[in-house]
Design a protein that fits this description.
Blueprint (H helix, E strand, L loop, with lengths): L7 H30 L1 E5 L13 E6 L5 E2 L6 E2 L10 E5 L7 E8 L4 E5 L2 E4 L2 E2 L12 E2 L3 E2 L4 E5 L4 E5 L9 H4 L2 E2 L3 E11 L29
Length: 223
């Protein structure tokens, strides 16, 4: 009978493969935890928040600031603070749960919001908005009339009134009502990458790719 031979090299290779698998699994779990509880990346697909956010901006969203919503319950746990006026929020769109929207919080619970000739009043006071843009148009996406006037509405408990910075191109609370606090995913933090796909650069011109990057927007804090 021949003695059984166990090559040391084979055992070492198996050990290294196991180590790689374990390291990858741990890294994946950490990434999932971070994405679920800490921060999440989003891409801006529309012009509704121009000029604060441009199409092609990639942002990080703080998911722990407002706490966590436990499914099938009301309220949030481990909350540092509630959303404030002026916060840029990412939330689940009330009319289509498969979509995430990004808008600015204009009214919080208890506030009365009114729009007069495109000017926003909160609790009777004109809101100072140096971030607002008006596109001088009367349609949004070609079929929804912009709403320049809105009678006073009071924000209920547990709700938010939100609007896009590009007022003539934003589909927001003026049209479909309030956002539930529990639908808020988090607060937009900063732009980590930005690409201008309108630049005349062909996909085959790899050496020109840096031209489509908006380098000056990278790292820009959102407020």
């Amino acid at each position: 009978m021949k003695p059984t031979h166990h090559p040391e090299g084979s055992a070492d290779r198996k050990g290294k493969v196991r180590e790689y698998i374990e390291a990858f699994t741990v890294a994946l779990l950490i990434a999932l935890i971070v994405r679920t509880l800490v921060i999440q990346a989003f891409k801006i697909p529309s012009s509704s928040m121009e000029d604060t956010l441009l199409i092609g901006d990639h942002i990080f969203v703080n998911k722990f600031l407002y706490g966590y919503h436990i499914p099938f319950t009301k309220g949030r746990v481990l909350r540092f603070r509630a959303p404030r006026r002026g916060d840029i929020l990412v939330f689940v769109f009330p009319e289509d749960k498969s979509k995430d929207f990004i808008k600015r919080a204009i009214g919080v619970p208890g506030d009365t919001v009114e729009v007069r000739e495109k000017r926003v009043f909160v609790n009777g006071q004109l809101l100072e908005e140096n971030y607002v843009r008006f596109a001088d148009g009367d349609t949004i996406d070609g079929f929804i009339r912009a709403r320049d006037n809105l009678p006073p509405v009071k924000v209920p408990s547990g709700k938010l009134f939100v609007m896009g910075d590009n007022r003539d191109r934003s589909y927001d609370s003026r049209f479909w009502g309030f956002v539930d606090m529990d639908a808020v995913i988090g607060k937009a933090m900063f732009i980590y990458f930005s690409v201008d796909w309108n630049r005349d650069v062909r996909w085959t011109e790899v050496w020109r790719y840096p031209e489509i990057v908006r380098w000056g927007r990278i790292g820009h804090l959102l407020h």
